[in-house]
């Protein structure tokens, strides 16, 4: 049989193919020749044939028939055969195929080979595609090579150990003695892989994390030597000494310093040195600075160091590279809650990013801009965001409009400014606003009695000849119907009044009715407005009757029904019409029971006591809290007030009754369900862009509320400067077992002398091995400063079983409630 063509000739031949069919024909012909050679057990050219097969595999053609040939090459004594054999195993085999187990003995023999390059091939292959069975069988050999003095083998053994730990975490302790001397190695390759190994072990085991925290000074010393060392051509990248090792060390320091004061203190100085001494003209330096910033923000660093980190991100915003600007915006968005004032210093640069051509940068800049809005800068920020709303792409308008509405409601300096801002949004992007924008604006206008004439005049001007923004037209129609007499009389004092006749007002509303752009809902608003004007206008009642009678035969059923009812009002009940169509009273926002309301003006927070108003007779709000009060009768228990709808329907309060159980409650019982009292908005705000509770009470110690079956619940506390009666409890749920806990639900109840609210949890799955936590915020209002007590209920699925447990928490520190 003639010798097969060489790999280089095959590549040259395939590249001459002009069509895919021609290339496929060449490949099939060569595969047939390779198969024939394999059947004849041709040992001479097996290596060449497998190499050609790997090239075809890289082109996307099937090459599975060469798997066993790879094993034969691995078993060969020639290094060139082993090299191609191991490469083929890494490309063609994985742990899903049983044939890979046949390699175990060969790899074991090669790990003990006298040639370091053969040992290196075996380590690379095991670290690439070794299954859990192979890792268990060969972990001992890897551990031996990890202790060898040969740096070439140690770096490969360290990476292989990382793969073994990922596949079989319980073998982690086997490698612990070998890691003691790894950081003393001078070779950068061994140092790099050692840091990767330590990082993997710390991330997977809290015990390892605590054990390796004593290495922080050594890591700091290595990092200091790197940034202070002179030029080294072997490790230099764009003038920086081994940036890859620096980044790895910074990541490991971030893990070791998280939630540990001593470790964080030990690395503060070196982080400041890295942040100030790293050259930023090249991307390499920016990568190191970014890792430094992440480390500073994640550990318990000093306030000055955090400001330095945010200033670095601010410099990133001025970089020409879009990726760096995007990374800076994303990082600032994560830190704006904890370091709000430091981020505020870069507000102008962030706002400039709204004009960027890249849509990803624009979106991040928009989100960050809304997070920076407060009572002091609301006018300037809204001006910039409204300008952005005018010019941005359609996919941004809905989110931008929603953010402006929320910010204006929270920080509006005056009612006129609030109304003008929302009208500007409706004029600019009315088609993109949320469904509740119309009723919310109507409620705002109704409650601003002194602004009625000004508002109706502005809205009348806004819709003259333009009905494209339907929400704006709906609000304008409602206001014209409600306050049309003020429009005609010209009583506006805020701006120059306009001269409008009754017929001109009706012309506008009739144009809305017949416009092709008007939706059915908008026509309903316009027809109702015309009907209301029959009691506010004196000269055009006959015209109004005619318009209403015309729509009695409309093909729109909703419009027809309205018109028929209004006609009946004219004909049969005309004596009742003025009373039925009189002005709407001031609307009150729907609130739930609570003693105080938080009113924010210009960024300041005041507490205003609300008047207690019992609900109208015959009207029972169908919400979980009231249902629960009815069920509990005279007990003085406060139910949990959720901020968002839960995924499961309430079961008539039964689960919460079980939760409350025999909790020993204080306070005198009442004989009837408690009347509804307005709920303070801070219990409904959720986690807003700028939290009210921004001063961590350093003197309040954290507690462990629950620790059983591998599930641990820790409570940390915050107090508010604006309302000392409010305590914010952050729960952190961790799982030390080997399997994750799913469908985790945390419930709580307190005596009725308290007000309690659970915000939404960060997740419903608690990762295993303490590799992550679920956080959830509880807000407690304690106006009487009584000792805090709580009953908690935990439900979750673990190891295929549904778990449930109750516990009572009575060990709250006095600082949390006094």
Automatic annotation (TrEMBL):
Compartment annotation: Cytoplasm, Perinuclear region; Cytoplasmic vesicle, Clathrin-coated vesicle membrane; Golgi apparatus; Membrane, Coated pit
Major localisation: cytoplasm
UniProt GO BP: intracellular protein transport; vesicle-mediated transport
Topological category with respect to the lipid bilayer: Peripheral membrane protein
Domain (GAE) ranges: 698-813
Keyword Isomerase: no
Gene Ontology CC entries for this record: AP-1 adaptor complex; clathrin-coated pit; perinuclear region of cytoplasm
Pfam family, one: Adaptin_N
Keyword field: Coated pit, Cytoplasm, Cytoplasmic vesicle, Golgi apparatus, Membrane, Protein transport, Transport
Keyword Protein transport applies: yes
UniProt similarity note: Belongs to the adaptor complexes large subunit family.
Classification via PANTHER family: ADAPTIN, ALPHA/GAMMA/EPSILON (PTHR22780)
Function: Subunit of clathrin-associated adaptor protein complex 1 that plays a role in protein sorting in the late-Golgi/trans-Golgi network (TGN) and/or endosomes. The AP complexes mediate both the recruitment of clathrin to membranes and the recognition of sorting signals within the cytosolic tails of transmembrane cargo molecules.
Name this protein carries in UniProt: AP-1 complex subunit gamma
């Amino acid at each position: 049989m003639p010798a097969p063509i060489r790999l280089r000739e095959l590549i040259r031949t395939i590249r001459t193919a002009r069509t895919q069919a021609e290339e496929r024909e060449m490949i099939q012909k060569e595969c047939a020749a390779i198969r024939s050679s394999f059947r004849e057990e041709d040992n001479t050219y097996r290596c060449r044939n497998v190499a050609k097969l790997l090239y075809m595999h890289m082109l996307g053609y099937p090459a599975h028939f060469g798997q066993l040939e790879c094993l034969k090459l691995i078993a060969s004594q020639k290094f060139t055969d082993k090299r191609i054999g191991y490469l083929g195993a890494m490309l063609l085999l994985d742990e899903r195929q049983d044939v890979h187990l046949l390699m175990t003995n060969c790899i074991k023999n090669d790990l003990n080979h006298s040639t370091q390059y053969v040992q290196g091939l075996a380590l690379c292959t095991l670290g690439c595609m070794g299954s859990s069975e192979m890792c268990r069988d060969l972990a001992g050999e890897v551990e031996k090579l990890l202790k060898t003095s040969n740096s070439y083998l140690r770096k490969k053994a360290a990476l292989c150990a990382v793969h073994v730990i990922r596949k079989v975490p319980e073998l982690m302790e086997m490698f612990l003695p070998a890691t003691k001397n790894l950081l003393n190695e001078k070779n950068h390759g061994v140092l790099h892989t050692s840091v990767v190994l330590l990082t993997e072990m710390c991330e997977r085991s809290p015990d390892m994390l605590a054990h390796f925290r004593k290495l922080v000074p050594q890591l700091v010393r290595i990092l200091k030597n790197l940034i202070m060392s002179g030029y080294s051509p072997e490790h230099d990248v764009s003038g920086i000494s081994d940036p890859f090792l620096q980044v790895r060390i910074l990541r490991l320091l971030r893990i070791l310093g998280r939630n540990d004061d001593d470790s964080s203190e030990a690395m503060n100085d070196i982080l400041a040195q890295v942040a100030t001494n790293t050259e930023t003209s090249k991307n390499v330096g920016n990568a190191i600075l970014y890792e430094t910033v992440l480390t500073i923000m994640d550990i318990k660093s000093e306030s000055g160091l955090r400001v330095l980190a945010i200033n670095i991100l601010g410099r990133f915003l001025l970089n020409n590279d879009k990726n760096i600007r995007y990374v800076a915006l994303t990082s600032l968005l994560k830190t704006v809650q904890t370091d709000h004032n430091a981020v505020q210093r870069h507000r102008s640069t962030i706002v400039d990013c709204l004009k960027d051509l890249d849509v990803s940068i624009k979106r991040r800049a928009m989100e960050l801009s809304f997070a920076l809005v407060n009572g002091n800068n609301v006018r300037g920020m809204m001006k910039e965001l409204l300008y952005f709303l005018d010019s941005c792409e359609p996919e941004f308008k809905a989110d931008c409009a929603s953010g402006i509405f929320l910010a204006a409601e929270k920080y509006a300096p005056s009612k006129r400014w609030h109304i003008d801002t929302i009208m500007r949004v409706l004029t600019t992007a009315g088609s993109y606003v949320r469904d509740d924008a119309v009723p919310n604006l109507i409620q705002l206008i109704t409650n601003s009695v002194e602004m009625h004439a000004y508002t109706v005049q502005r809205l009348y001007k806004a819709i003259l000849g333009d009905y494209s923004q339907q929400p704006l037209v709906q609000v304008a129609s409602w206001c014209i119907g409600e306050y049309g007499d003020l429009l005609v009389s010209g009583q506006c004092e805020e701006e120059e009044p306009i001269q409008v006749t009754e017929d001109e007002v009706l012309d506008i509303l009739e144009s809305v009715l017949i416009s092709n752009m008007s939706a059915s809902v908008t026509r309903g608003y316009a027809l109702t407005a015309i009907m209301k004007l029959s009691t506010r206008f004196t000269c055009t009642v006959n015209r109004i009757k005619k318009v209403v009678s015309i729509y009695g035969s409309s093909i729109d059923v909703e419009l027809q029904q309205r018109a028929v009812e209004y006609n009946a009002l004219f004909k049969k009940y005309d004596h009742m019409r003025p009373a039925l169509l009189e002005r709407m009273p001031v609307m009150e926002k729907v609130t739930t029971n609570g003693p105080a309301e938080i009113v924010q003006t210009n960024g300041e927070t005041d507490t205003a006591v609300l008047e207690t108003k019992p609900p109208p007779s015959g009207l029972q709000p169908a919400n979980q809290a009231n249902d629960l009060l009815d069920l509990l009768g005279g007990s003085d228990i406060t139910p949990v007030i959720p901020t968002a709808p839960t995924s499961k329907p309430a079961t008539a309060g039964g689960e919460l009754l079980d939760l409350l159980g025999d909790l020993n409650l204080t306070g005198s019982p009442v004989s009837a369900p408690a009347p509804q009292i307005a709920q303070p908005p801070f219990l409904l705000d959720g986690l807003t862009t700028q939290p009210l509770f921004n001063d961590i009470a350093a003197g309040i110690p954290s507690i462990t509320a629950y620790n059983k079956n591998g599930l641990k619940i820790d409570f940390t506390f915050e107090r508010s400067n604006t309302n000392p009666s409010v305590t914010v409890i952050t729960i952190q749920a961790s799982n030390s077992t080997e399997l994750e806990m799913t469908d985790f639900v945390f419930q709580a109840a307190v005596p009725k002398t308290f007000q309690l609210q659970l915000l939404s949890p960060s997740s419903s799955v608690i990762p295993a091995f303490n590799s992550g936590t679920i956080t959830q915020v509880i807000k407690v209002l304690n106006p009487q400063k009584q000792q805090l007590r709580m009953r908690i209920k935990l439900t979750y699925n673990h190891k295929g079983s549904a778990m449930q447990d109750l516990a009572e928490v009575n060990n709250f520190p006095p600082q949390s409630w006094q």
